[in-house]
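Quick one, tokens below. Sequence please?
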């Protein structure tokens, strides 16, 4: 008899995320997950109730990488930067699950804890509760917009011919898409923080 059970919640989450990374969200099913783990599908339900519950648990592990400690230290600007950058990095590591996460925090404990820290830090810095909610939402628009699409890699101006003379070098963008995506994200993040700083309380 084995010392440890064949299945564990952690092993199930890891296998589920591997499938999502490889096959996408639609590629995950409880039957496929069971086959990946070498067990019967019924065995999974002793550890997780539904596929959606499993996705929330997987999401919680990914969001554990998001750093909101800047808000705890009382510096809302640093908090926005560290939260946005770590959030984007966490999503970039697992892009296939981004559409699920983009629906909002729902009942995910990990999401709600971090949102609570962000909101509390902004209110403590003098922002109204309404403004804090708007700032947190704006930050998520920026992070998820960046994670959902690579704008620069979609260009291939060679097919446009002479119709768009100002885009004559746009076909070069895919070669540096990763760098441009990073720099564009940083540009937008700093523009957000600069704009907020101009109207910051106190």
């Amino acid at each position: 008899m084995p010392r440890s059970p064949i299945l564990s919640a952690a092993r199930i989450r890891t296998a589920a995320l591997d499938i999502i990374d490889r096959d996408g969200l639609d590629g995950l099913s409880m039957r496929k997950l069971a086959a990946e783990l070498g067990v019967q599908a019924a065995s999974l339900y002793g550890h997780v109730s539904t596929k959606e519950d499993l996705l929330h648990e997987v999401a919680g592990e990914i969001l554990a990488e998001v750093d909101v400690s800047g808000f705890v230290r009382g510096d809302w600007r640093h908090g926005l930067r560290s939260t946005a950058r770590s959030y984007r990095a966490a999503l970039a590591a697992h892009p296939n699950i981004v559409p699920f996460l983009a629906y909002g925090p729902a009942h995910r404990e990990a999401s709600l804890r971090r949102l609570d820290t962000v909101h509390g830090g902004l209110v403590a810095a003098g922002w109204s509760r309404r403004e804090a909610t708007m700032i947190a939402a704006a930050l998520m628009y920026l992070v998820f917009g960046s994670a959902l699409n690579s704008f620069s890699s979609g260009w291939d101006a060679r097919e446009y011919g002479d119709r768009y003379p100002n885009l004559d070098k746009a076909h070069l963008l895919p070669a540096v898409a990763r760098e441009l995506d990073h720099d564009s994200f940083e540009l937008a993040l700093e523009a957000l923080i600069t704009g907020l700083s101009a109207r910051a309380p106190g």
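The domain at 9-48 is CATH 1.10.10.60 (Arc Repressor Mutant, subunit A). The chain has two domains: 9-48, 68-197.
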